[in-house]
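Please fill in the sequence for the structure shown.

STRUCTURE ENCODING:
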């Protein structure tokens, strides 16, 4: 097994004391610039990295920002991209953490934060199930299950986005519009259903509970939901799905039944994950700027780490409709 370089190894190789190495690596006074440069060069050559735990005991900073997610899926992956870009040049390293237990409904955030206690300057929680968390380090929540609460939060306007999606279908002439809903325990899903209902109300279309099925943001459940909708004696001419995964599943179910999208069935999703543009046909969807969610969360977190007061502790980003090739006016009924 390869020997891991220690601070003593660096000191011996550089011909200085351990105290001098410590000062040079941590940027403290008392070390000449030439000596500091030599120490850092030797440390880099030996592959020496100071312990995060030791760093946290020496100072109040570790130089590491954590991102906690329940699972690596399209939404969280896009958010992570935004976080990584926003942290560039900040001097902080990024640690992405998921418990991978598949048990994201029972306060996984508390356990995760506890396990990494003392190693982080602050953390971003993506879609956390709880927000009553210990305040030992600055925390920012992205799209929390319960919506804005005690923690600073960043989310997207799901209500307005859903209203846009369904209004688009209404403007095309659809009156019988199905809905593949998200998880009922998530505020984002409830807002998207509320936007669906409001758009129907705006158009004078009575709400029909038989046209709503739970997809839970999951492919398998969404396929079952789409199957139930398309098996109705009078099936919908259009479907709004609460996320792109559900919308793509709906298109696939329609195609297996010989329906042509959008001639026989129009479909609109929500999120605009990369898979939406690559779908066959490319998916009309509501775009929420997932990478911008990450950007905003980083800006808030870095301000908190620096001891600054947030001017806006709760930020909601706008959504917009992206028209592709899964929506069209309803075809005329056979004569």
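FILLED IN BY: designer on duty
SEQUENCE:
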């Amino acid at each position: 097994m390869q020997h891991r370089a220690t601070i003593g190894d660096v000191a011996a190789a550089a011909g200085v004391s351990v105290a001098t190495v410590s000062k040079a690596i941590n940027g403290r006074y008392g070390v000449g610039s030439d000596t500091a440069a030599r120490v850092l060069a030797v440390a880099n050559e030996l592959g020496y990295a100071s312990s995060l735990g030791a760093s946290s005991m020496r100072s109040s900073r570790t130089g590491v920002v954590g991102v906690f997610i329940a699972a690596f899926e399209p939404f969280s992956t896009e958010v992570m991209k935004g976080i990584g870009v926003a942290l560039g040049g900040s001097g902080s390293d990024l640690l992405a953490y998921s418990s991978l237990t598949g048990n994201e409904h029972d306060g996984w955030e508390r356990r995760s934060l506890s396990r990494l206690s003392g190693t982080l300057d602050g953390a971003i929680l993506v879609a956390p199930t709880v927000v009553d968390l210990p305040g030992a380090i600055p925390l920012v929540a992205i799209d929390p299950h319960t919506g804005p609460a005690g923690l600073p939060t960043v989310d997207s306007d799901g209500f307005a986005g859903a209203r846009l999606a369904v209004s688009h279908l209404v403007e095309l002439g659809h009156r019988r519009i199905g809905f593949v809903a998200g998880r009922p325990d998530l505020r984002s899903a409830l807002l998207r259903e509320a936007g669906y209902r409001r758009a129907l109300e705006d158009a004078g279309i009575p709400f029909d509970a038989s046209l709503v099925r739970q997809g839970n943001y999951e492919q398998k459940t969404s396929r079952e939901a789409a199957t139930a909708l398309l098996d109705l004696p009078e099936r919908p001419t259009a479907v709004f799905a609460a996320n792109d995964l559900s919308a793509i599943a709906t298109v696939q179910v329609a195609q297996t039944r010989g329906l042509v999208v959008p001639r026989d069935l129009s479909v609109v999703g929500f999120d605009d994950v990369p898979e939406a543009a690559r779908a066959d046909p490319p998916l009309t969807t509501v775009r929420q700027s997932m990478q911008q969610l990450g950007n905003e969360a980083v800006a808030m977190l870095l301000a908190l780490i620096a001891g600054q007061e947030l001017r806006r502790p709760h930020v909601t980003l706008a959504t917009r409709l992206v028209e592709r090739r899964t929506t069209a006016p309803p075809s005329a009924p056979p004569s």
